[in-house]
Amino acid sequence: ISAFLTLSGKGGEVKTGSLDNPKYDDFVKGAIDTFTIESDIDIGQLDCVTIDVEEDDAWSFEWISVSSDINPVERYVFNNESVMMSSDLSEGKSVPSSPSLEKEGK
């Protein structure tokens, strides 16, 4: 799987590029993967997380947590409906804006 995130806020957006931990098998079922993104852009309060996937391996996430040095309060995005994502639309689901992807502060 190749997965990419775009983190958007009132101050702009940050595109992660491919999420990958070198020398580690990312996106294994049941595992928790952590990715560190470095950027000089302060997006302000997180408003939206966009996930793009490539390849035809159906993939799902339970939750995504985002924090920064500027705003250390973690923000969570939950996939309450267990939406599967894939570039192959017969495996995944296109979800431009889903109410089931909720944001919560913790």
Shape: globular
Percentage beta strand: 35-45%
Output the number of helix runs: 0
C-alpha-based Rg, rounded: 14 Å
Strand order of the largest sheet: 2-1-3
Structural class: mainly beta
Structural features:
single chain, 6 strands, 3-stranded antiparallel β-sheet, mainly beta
Briefly, what is this?
By secondary structure, the protein is mainly beta. The protein is 0% helix and 36% strand. It is built from no helices and 6 strands.
Structure description:
This protein is an all-beta fold and 106 residues long. 0% of the residues lie in helices and 36% in strands. It has strands spanning 2-9, 12-18, 46-54, 63-66, 75-79, 101-105. The strands form two sheets. It has a three-stranded antiparallel beta sheet, with no helix packed on it. 7% of the residues are buried.
Task: Record the SSE blueprint.
Elements (H helix, E strand, L loop, with lengths): L1 E8 L2 E7 L27 E9 L8 E4 L8 E5 L21 E5 L1
Antiparallel strand pairs: 1-2, 1-3, 4-5, 5-6
